[in-house]
Each structure stands twice: as C-alpha cells, then as structure tokens.
Amino acid sequence: xxxxxxxxxxxxxxxxxxxxxxxxxxxxxxxxxxxxxxxxxxxxxxxxxxxxxxxxxxxxxxxxxxxxxxxxxxxxxxxxxxxxxxxxxxxxxxxxxxxxxxxxxxxxxxxxxxxxxxxxxxxxxxxxxxxxxxxxxxxxxxxxxxxxxxxxxxxxxxxxxxxxxxxxxxxxxxxxxxxxxxxxxxxxxxxxxxxxxxxxxxxxxxxxxxxxxxxxxxxxxxxxxxxxxxxxxxxxxxxxxxxxxxxxxxxxxxxxxxxxxxxxxxxxx
Length: 269
Known about the structure:
By secondary structure, the protein is α+β, with helices and mostly antiparallel strands. It has helices spanning 20-28, 35-47, 81-89, 105-111, 147-173, 178-181, 184-193, 199-210, 214-221, 225-239, 244-259; strands spanning 2-6, 51-58, 61-69, 96-102, 119-126, 131-138. It contains eleven helices and six strands.
C-alpha cells in the first residue's frame, strides 16, 4: 500500500516538535564530517529511520549527496535511478511530495532489509536549479509511520534539503590546502620570495605556519626562544598583522596568488 502526501496538512501532535533539536544539529553540522550521521539522527527522531540517503538531480545528472546507516543496516543502494527520477518528475517547484510505501520483498531481500513491515519514505522537492529526493527506510521492528510523523517530516523537509544541499556545496568546493602547509621548504620559499621580511623573520613565520611551537622553532634554528619571539614580533609588525590566525590567513592568500590556486581564497570567507 502506498500513501502519498502532497502539501497536505494533517493534524500534528505538538510534542513531536520537541525533536527540533535534531534538526538544529543537522544545520550546525553543515560542512562537518559527521553531517550524514546528524541527518540520520534527525530522520530517526522523527520517523524511526535506520537508513537515510539524499539524491540530487541537476543538469541531467543524478548524484548521491548523503548516505547514512544505523547499526546493522544494509549499506547497499535501495533505490534505482529510475525510481528517483520518477519521484522527482511528480513534484512542482518549491513543493514537497512524500510517498510512504512498504519495501517490496525482493528489494528488501536484495538490500538486506527485513521484508513485510519495513517502510520506505520518499521525500521529493524541487528548487529553482535542482531537484532532491530523500529516501528514508524504517526497519520492521517499528510500527508503520503515523500521519503526525509524516506531517512533521513534510514541514521540515525544506530546511533539511537546504542543509543537505549547502553541505554538499561546501564539501564539493572545499579547496585542498594540504600542499600549502605540508612542506616547510615550500612554505619558507613562498614567504621569503614574496615579502621584504629578513631571512630569520621569514624562517620563523614559516615554522609557525608549519605548526612548530616557539620552543621547537628555537631548537630547529639553533637560536634562543627569546630571539624567536623577537623575530615573530618584527615580522608581524612588517606584515601588519597581530596574531597567528592572521598570519595563516595572510599566507594562504599569498600562496593562492603565487601558486595559481585561486580556489583557496574561498576557504577564507
């Protein structure tokens, strides 16, 4: 049996809104490594999910944005591209469409889900430039989803999908800064070749950027710790900065310009 909700307003138990903390956690974790787990936690809090996946259809291409599995859940894909595109073809721009159905026995067996009472909840929404499909699987140990739970999911779908899209954009566009900070000789060369810092001032700044402590810099350069502090103070004054964080921002902008890595600038915003 399939139930479809398209912008319907079912009665809702207000106590369910207390699970809003889980949605806040999703938003707060945008760009973080545990984002997918936060999405699953939200889906679990609202409808008791143990598998959640989000897909994006943009420019004729379908891509998986987020996928998270509860303990013991299958990690195999549970939806075909055809099924996802079918859902998205039935939703209008800025609308939310939800379809609730039992997981077919053959599909459940192939994906490792328990047949019978397992449910799949599909949330489809379309933005101006892309369409999104959220697949949530509820295990057989739970009773079928209630109307109030589905309504809460519908009301929060816009925020959830926007958070997923933002997270994907951040991850996809995140520059690779490893080359900028992984080689001390390269850091030193970049700093000294593009500034009027003295040799010692540049060497001290390069080692700060490389992650050495003042004591470590003193040992590495064979000078006293007080000398390290003096060279650092002089360098900061010449560069017009006042902290290690400002030194890092200054250096990454410099590295971006001199090494042709313009995308690094996005990391500073």
